[in-house]
Design brief:
The complex is a heterodimer. Chain A is mainly alpha-helical. Chain A is built from 5 helices and 3 strands. The chains are: A mainly alpha, B alpha/beta. Chains A and B meet through helix 2 and helix 3 of A and helix 5, helix 6, helix 7 and strand 14 of B.
Chain lengths: 139, 310
């Protein structure tokens, strides 16, 4: 199976981190369901053009977090994930995305105040859109 | 799983050899087992001599080499060789009049673990008729035939000296798939030399850089690409004068003036240079990973500088 993991060579984060975050995301986001067989270490390493050492490290970390489990001779599988864990993951993910947006703002020499204003403006637009939607639903 | 961390498939301790005109060494290195290590270096850097040394084909003048825990000795009748598969850089002229089938028959006598089924599988994967005389095969076909023979006893250690030379892109892809399959059990070791960057990026776990008969370093591939960066920087002086400050950058490898008030600097300490850059008033416009060739080039320049100052 080919996992939808993409490595961004331009990001400063090390490869193992990029892979780990995305694989964790696939599991916690529900794309990879409990019991799904993951590729072997070598298979994933070759398909992502990274080393088996990196994949071994990612699998070990995720196994430690209880997200995957390795059965001797049978391979590596997605483990059962609790709902609370999934909720925590949603918040973590949104914070990561916001952080990227803030980084982009700072790179453009925006002040914190300007970024906060922009954020509030977007939130106002979005929440009125959502209110609009729900009013439409009622009609 | 991927090999025992403490195990070394190959250990070199101050090895010096005097091959056919190419002196090698002193070499010190430990090649991890269970992983793929790519040997990378310019022509004449000693890659082939290194392979020959590991097989006891080049007399070791100084130091000691251990392959699969066995010392490499001149009389070379050791049993460890039956656990190795080897593909030489150039075909052996003595094999010219043999068919692939005949060469395989010899190999099957020599290797107790010869796997006839695997041999047949490899032949069919590579599309080889093993009744044809080796000298009548094209360069690429012969390469594939010899690779099939070298891999058919499923050795613990596979030594491939530029396996992809002469292969067309389709054969190359099949070879990579077969090497991946070879590595799948996790306890086998592959050492291959290559000039093909794509091959190294896809296959290698570790990279051994060589130049001028010396080892420049053995690196974990991903850490190498994570840590080595090329930065485009605007400095406080906005000109060549910034290079003086940049020379003190942690991990500095080389730097040059890029024009328009910008400098380019290569560093091998990704993340550790931020503090210094900020305190000097540098602004990083771009940070990108480096290509294998550029990293090799930096290592060669450093080696040259070292030997000049020595």
């Amino acid at each position: 199976m080919r996992l939808p993991i993409r490595i961004d060579e331009q990001r400063p984060e090390p490869l193992y981190h990029q892979i780990e975050v995305q694989l964790r995301g696939l599991i916690l986001g529900g794309e990879l369901q409990e019991g799904t067989a993951l590729p072997s270490i070598r298979e994933l390493a070759v398909s992502l053009k990274c080393s088996a050492i990196t994949i071994r490290r990612v699998y070990q970390d995720l196994e430690h977090e209880g997200l995957i489990r390795t059965r001797q001779g049978a391979g590596t599988f997605v483990a059962r994930v609790e709902t609370a864990e999934l909720d925590r993951h949603r918040v973590t993910r949104v914070m990561e995305e916001l952080e990227k947006a803030v980084e982009a703002g700072l790179a453009l020499h925006c002040t914190i105040e300007e970024i906060e204003d922009a954020f509030r403006q977007i939130m106002r637009t979005k929440s009125s859109e959502q209110r609009g939607d729900s009013e439409d639903d009622r009609e | 799983m991927t090999g025992n961390k403490d195990q070394r498939a190959i250990r070199l301790e101050g090895v010096r050899t005097q091959g056919a005109g190419h002196p090698l060494g002193p070499l010190d290195a430990e090649i991890p087992s269970g992983l793929v290590t790519a040997v990378v270096g310019p022509n004449g850097s000693g890659k082939s001599t290194l392979f020959r040394t590991l097989l006891g084909l080049e007399p070791i003048r100084e130091g000691a080499a251990f392959v699969l825990e066995s010392p490499v000795l001149p009389d070379s009748s050791e049993t460890y060789k039956a656990r190795i598969g080897f593909l030489a850089e150039n075909p052996h002229p003595g094999d010219d009049r043999l068919t692939t089938r005949e060469k395989a028959s010899f190999a099957s006598l020599w290797y107790p673990d010869w796997n006839e089924i695997r041999y047949r599988e490899l032949l069919s994967r590579f599309g080889i008729d093993d009744t044809v005389t080796l000298s009548k095969l094209s360069k690429g076909m012969r390469r594939k035939a010899e690779l099939a023979v070298a891999m058919a006893h499923e050795p613990e250690l596979l030594l491939l000296d530029e396996p992809s030379s002469g292969l067309d892109p389709f054969a190359w892809k099949i070879m990579l798939e077969e090497l991946q399959r070879y590595m799948e059990p996790g306890d086998r070791t592959l050492l291959l030399s290559s000039h093909v960057t794509e091959e190294v990026k896809r296959m290698a776990d570790c990279i051994l850089f060589m130049n001028g008969g010396r080892i420049l370093g053995l690196f974990e591939k991903d850490r190498l690409f994570d840590e080595w960066r090329s930065l485009l920087i605007r400095g406080p002086a906005g000109g060549e004068k910034d290079l003086e400050l940049l020379a003190k950058l942690p991990g500095w490898r080389q730097a040059s003036y890029a024009g328009s008030g910008l400098c380019r600097v290569e560093t091998d300490a990704m993340g550790k240079e931020d503090g210094y850059l900020q305190s000097c008033g540098f602004h990083v416009l771009e940070s990108r990973r480096m290509e294998l060739e550029d990293i090799l080039n930096c290592l060669i320049v450093k080696e040259d500088n070292n030997s000049e100052s020595a």
